[in-house]
Amino acid sequence: MSKVYLIGAGPGAADLLTLRAARLLAEKAEIVLADDLVSDEILAMVRPDARVLKVGKRGGKASTPQGFIHRLMVRYARRGKCVLRLKGGDPFVFGRGGEEVEALAAAGIEAEVVPGLTAGISVPAAVGIPVTHRAYTQGVTLVTGTSGEGCDEPNWRALAQGGTTLVIYMGLSRLLNIVARLIAAGLPPDTPAAAIASGTLPGQRHVKATLADLPARVCAEGLASPAIIVVGEVAALAVATTSTQDISARILAA
């Protein structure tokens, strides 16, 4: 049996992939099980003779059952193939990497995790938002905006009163509800907030507003998933421009 590598592909841009991940894709991959958010630019780095299977999971769209992904990993590893499970961001940050390691262990198969830049840190940074800043916040809390089937909602009251930057994954489709819950839990409506779509990719766009106004701004600008939501004083530090090209031009002009 072969080892299975759980690889974080980072937030999107291929040049944000780790050197270890790039080497494994180019040299060792025989079977690649790729998530929906892994860009074509990254998939182009896979060695030409490898077989790439897309096993994406996206809210509101047809998705590959998690159990089927587990069976594929086990099946190909038992055949002696070098299996790379390629996941957006970091495998262990809302990436189901923990579930997959458990499934492999139960089958007696070794797993190695190759960390990646998680979108919750790198995407805000791409628009000038430091998720921690000693002048504004005591820390950062990463939370999902979409609970799994049978799972409880996040404790929005505790999050509203925690005093940290909130970084919300997979929350754009429920943004109005999330904002209402945070305000009802005591977070001031004028708290700075931002939403960043397609972070680090050429189509990156973002808006910043007060928490109360953020849903209307997102709607007006037509932002779509995948997106990261940031709530807290540091969100006010986001640059005013919206695209990666604009931001690059602004940096070169400085």
TrEMBL record:
Q: SUPFAM superfamilies this protein is in?
A: Tetrapyrrole methylase (SSF53790)
GO MF annotation: an example: uroporphyrin-III C-methyltransferase activity
Q: In which pathway does it act?
A: Cofactor biosynthesis; adenosylcobalamin biosynthesis; precorrin-2 from uroporphyrinogen III: step 1/1; Porphyrin-containing compound metabolism; siroheme biosynthesis; precorrin-2 from uroporphyrinogen III: step 1/1
What EC number(s) does this enzyme carry?
2.1.1.107
The alphabetized UniProt keywords are: Cobalamin biosynthesis, Methyltransferase, Porphyrin biosynthesis, S-adenosyl-L-methionine, Transferase
> Its domain of life?
Bacteria
Family (UniProt): Belongs to the precorrin methyltransferase family.
Q: What is this protein called?
A: uroporphyrinogen-III C-methyltransferase
Q: Which organism is it from?
A: Parazoarcus communis
Instruction: List the lineage, top down.
Output: Bacteria, Pseudomonadati, Pseudomonadota, Betaproteobacteria, Rhodocyclales
What gene is behind this protein?
Answer: cobA
